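Need the bound structure for magnesium ion, inputs here:
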Amino acid sequence: MRFEYAPAPESRDVVEIQPSYGLFIDGRFTDGGGTAFKTVNPATEETLAEVACADEADVDRAVAAARKAFETWSALPGTERAKYLFRIARIIQERARELAVLETLDNGKPIRESRDVDVPLVAAHFFYYAGWADKLAYAGFGPAPRPLGVAAQVIPWNFPLMMLAWKIAPALACGNTVVLKPAETTPLTALAFAEICVQAGLPAGVVNIVTGPGATGAALVAHPGVDKVAFTGSTGVGRQIARTVAGGRKKVTLELGGKAANIVFEDAPLDQAVEGIVNGIFFNQGHVCCAGSRLLVAEPIQDELLAALRRRLATLRVGDPMDKNTDVGAINSAAQLARITELVEAGEAEGATRWSPACDLPERGYWFAPTVFTGVAQSHRIACEEVFGPVLSVLTFRTPAEAVEKANNTPYGLSAGVWTEKGSRILWMADRLRAGVVWANTFNRFDPVSPFGGYKESGYGREGGRHGLEAYLDV
Ligand code: NAD
Ligand code: MG
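Answer from helper R.:
Posting the output first, comments after.
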């Protein structure tokens, strides 16, 4: 029997979206020199607001404001910087509902996720790094570690506010000032964060937000006044940025793509594993760099596990992201939908078997049904390339050694999951998996205390935890 759910829409009225937004430079909202662009709600294709575009002169102004603010901000005692960060964290909690709604409208992710995962983690990140601000001398980076200066930060659209928090909280705690560029399809929560900086009384110029397309990001990372570059996004752009800063003095951290293996052994608790597989690849529509996009299942349990997975997927509710019962929301943009569609078509053309549960997709907006491919070979594009969508590729293995070999057979190395009852097997696997994070009997679990980052083409540097401080200190 299937339970039907009555509509449970979250209210849009908790957020007031302005018709247009400026850049946030030196504590004030200002016009941009480039051509303003629109950001849409991907679930309806409705225009939400017009947003200013920063050109090179605007980027230059923002870097100059950050440079000036650095003199006083870096000279403050850590206890004083901590007060601002604690204040920001508390305002985020107070405005949590508004931020969650704004994130869901601009990004397309289910309100259940922005409300219960994204925004709480954003506040937690600021609380966590506020706690470090006056303890940097005890962090293991020398007795008096110094900040780097002005940080240029470029972030993607999949976790707009969370990626902002991962970048801004440690930078400010360590005494740096920042210029951040949000993704062009999801600028609204970063601009709400600019308001929060004003509300918290943060000194002008400590945080600057410049909106615009890739060209704005390119101008920012290339600016000679920048001391540190932090980027999260695609491996292709990451490579370009690495080339831009090569040979210079800028410190760089790159958080790029992934193609994680989620490995289920025959002794795994199956129902729990099914939940973990679903969370691993259908959380945030699969727009997750550490998504468990390759399911590696022990051959003897393949049929049983896939039957349970299909039953579970038939109960996923795909649709209106503002409905509190929705599990899978909208694809973030037409461009991303086109990329997913292209790779899925390649999967079929290469001979894998495609399956989706029956689901009615809304007529307007960008949608893709949860999809599972079986009969996948390691050489298929859907097994090698990051789909960055709700698409799971299923492969099998016979021995733990074969599972390790297949899991590591990727240019990426961001995360992995292991499902088994045996603690010794978890440790044996974790030792051999070339992935920055290995989850055991869980997946996509985040905590500000835990460092996050990749091997190989997934990038370099760590964000989160004590390790995350190192990226913003002169050590
Ligand atoms: P992208 O790398 O193009 O964009 C990420 C950010 O970089 C955006 O703010 C963008 O404006 C900016 N940017 C683009 N070109 C730039 C340049 N030359 N210099 C500086 N900044 C630049 O990513 P995308 O197009 O949004 O997504 C494409 C793919 O990236 C996805 O399919 C996925 O594989 C990957 N991705 C990974 C993550 C992650 O968390 N690791 C997040 C989003 C996307
Ligand atoms: Mg948008």
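Comments: Residues 15 and 279 are 28 Å apart (CA to CA). Residues 154-158, 181, 183-184, 213-214, 217-218, 221, 232-234, 237, 240-241, 255-257, 289, 339, 386, 388 surround nicotinamide-adenine-dinucleotide (ligand 1) (CB under 6 Å).
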